[in-house]
Amino acid sequence: MTHxxxxxxxxxxxxxxxTARVEAGPKLRCQTPEADPGGGGINVSRAIKFLGGDxxxxxxxxxxxxxxxxxxxxEERVRFTAFSVNGGATRQSMAVTEEETGKQYRFVMPGPxxxxxxxxxxxxxxAQAAPSSGVVVLSGSQPPGVPLDYTARLSRRLEAKxxxxxxxxxxxxxxxxVKHPANPSVLRMDDVEAxxxxxxxxxxxxATADFASDLVAKGVAQTVIVARGSDGSTLANAEGRxxxxxxxxxxxxxxxxxxxxxFVGAFSLALTRGEEMQQAxxxxxxxxxxxxxxxGTQLCxxxxxxxxxxxxxxxxx
Length: 317
Description:
Elements: E1 4-8, E2 12-19, E3 34-38, H1 40-50, E4 56-61, H2 63-75, E5 80-84, E6 91-98, E7 104-108, H3 116-129, E8 135-139, H4 150-159, E9 164-168, H5 171-179, E10 186-190, H6 191-198, H7 205-217, E11 223-227, E12 233-237, E13 240-245, H8 259-272, H9 277-291, H10 302-308, E14 313-316
Parallel strand pairs: 1-4, 1-8, 2-6, 4-5, 8-9, 9-10, 10-11
Antiparallel strand pairs: 2-3, 6-7, 11-12, 12-13, 13-14
Helix pairs in contact: 1-8, 3-4, 8-9, 9-10
């Protein structure tokens, strides 16, 4: 099976808790918090682990929070390679659930600042750690100081090793990738990010597929995936366009945190196991649906994915 290396440049220790009501002014008494390792690539590796697969997580860490993060990963037996940063401590993020309404409030810190030397060292370290003819998954936000063309620079370094690059990004780095295509193997985004890129709403699956197909035609990526929230995900490449969905009873939804990372983990795992693109799309979509059934910052479980998979609907667009 093809090996997977996940990349997390801006990891976090995710803290989740709950309180009766969120309001300004009084001290809010919270439940005992839970701490989980977090950040895009880390969560992709965790999802792969939960689904019975294997990967290595390349993680940029600093300070005592970084040490705590590595301890949490070791407890989950997720294999990792640590890259030391000196621009500050690894960040924390917090998710607070308001018990009266079920609403979840998420607070995200910026992370340590990178200088140009750290950028170059990280690119060299990733290129060295990347498995030949394997898969590298770059997922999550970029720390302050990392240039917008980081993905393109990484793509060029990996191409010589025959490595497939899967990218899950947002904001300015995504817009940079669209403006100056690097043609990674896979590019994933959600519907809000896609609408920000195109400048107008994408109200239907067909509209989303048209947008994704246009990016493929422009060489932005070989395969483009757009998540449409509870409606599932749309995929387009040179071979065709498909949409996968796995409906979940709204009453069963606990937390949407981790759905995207669960998708990327399951999708990547399926492809490296030799599944066709359409089957991988279904597997990823089901994993995303399974993730909303878990609390706080937890991801999908193998049991839920297995139970839900037969109900995934796949259609050509």
